[in-house]
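worker-3 :: picked DNA-binding response regulator
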Amino acid sequence: MRVLVVEDERLIADGIAEWLRRESFAVDMTYDGEAALDRLYANDYDVVVLDRDLPRVHGDEVCRRIVAARSRSRVLMLTAAGGLRDRVAGLSLGADDYLPKPFAFVELSARVHALTRRSRPAAPPVLERAGVRLDPARGEVHRDGRPISLGNREFAVLTELLRAEGAAVSAEELLERVWDEHIDPFTNVVRVTIMKLCRKLGEPPIVFTVQEKGYRIP
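worker-3 :: tokens ->
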């Protein structure tokens, strides 16, 4: 699941990004509205965490353009103005949710999790398949009742495979959804992560390679 954080206060932006990465999101960052539009043109995001008061291009205009483009990206708008009129104004622009500053990171991540479920076809809050149970909000994975400890990327890859409901997910799709824009597109990181994931999930294997299509959990 991929998130774009657009916030001109760098300490806040860095804090949001660090927190969301701990929650196994792939996070890109930018600090002004013009750069945000460039990123949105180049990449596909599940959620945009968007500060309203941005330099160069105002956050309101960024939100308008996201909506006008009929993007599937969901917008969580942030602002220091938390009055009712401001919240209504933000939502009327097409934002999907609105969070006034100051906020708790735990609440922000809960709202991002909720929006990711709306950015794609509906998925249950807890994903289950082949004896694996994954709770994205709690960051927990069990196989046949046994807890499994996964790294952030392994957790995110498993989430994507479970969301596919038996269909194959290509390495290119996993790179797009799980890693940020700095990843080398020619890297073998997906294969290595799949190998680590399979080792931690144990026997019998449940993740299979589909020739020329990717990986799947049948």
